[in-house]
Amino acid sequence: MGVLTIGLTGGIASGKSHVAKAFIALGVPLLEADDVAREVVAPPSPALAEIADTFGAQMLNGDGTLDRRALREVVFGDPAQLKKLEAITHPAIRRRVAEWRAAQTAPYCIYSAAILIEAGMTALVDRVLLVDAPEDVQLRRLTARDAASETLARQMIAAQASRERRLDAADDVIDNRDEKFSVEAQVARLHAQYMRSGQSI
After folding, report:
1. Domain extent for 68
2. Is 62 exposed, middle or buried (0-12, 13-18, 19+ CB in 10 A)?
3. From its phi and psi, is residue 136 left (phi > 0), alpha (psi between -120 and 50) or beta?
4. How many structural domains does the chain have?
5. Cα separation of 187 and 148, whole Å?
6. 27-70: per-residue pLDDT in tens?
7. How far apart are CA 191 and CA 108, in angstroms?
8. Same domain for 111 and 178?
9. Same domain for 48 and 16?
10. What is the CATH number of the domain that holds 82?
11. Structural domain ending residue among the three candidates 79, 103, 127
12. Which residues, 6 or more positions from 133, have their beta carbon under 8 angstroms from its beta carbon?
């Protein structure tokens, strides 16, 4: 199975990126799910060819790369089409994460994915680390950070797993509701814990 792997996740505007940077600063190998998702559909990947076969050649740009906007328009709001896409991309993502994990030599590594729980990817990791913030804090950050309306911010939050579901799936939690709860101090404590656990494997 490779080294101890932590799945880092969190709702939108929870501060997951801040936490990821804190772990990277400590020298922890970290793989971003967004990077993997782009990599597995880069030409000439089998997944890209399958997307074109399934959804049509119009899903490709003139240079042979994936037209993400066109694909989003097809799958957004259509669960059946989204399931078709996930059936193509998820196995490729799982293979890529497993390869990366097997190549690690540090005591532990991190796979960072906003939809780790929703996408059923928790089997790829040994522990789930949740960056948690209450919904009112997420709303405040989203409206300030992205200049999103409150209605849009609520829709963005509702599109992800509920806070309760994430907390239920988490093995470890970083409290990021406000500056009182120092993220760096919480990361340092977990880093020490993970180092001990990883070295004992």
Report:
1. 33-103
2. exposed
3. alpha
4. 2
5. 29
6. 999 999 999 999 999 999 999 999 999 999 999 999 999 999 99
7. 9
8. yes
9. no
10. 3.40.50.300
11. 103
12. 10, 11, 13, 14, 15, 141, 176, 177
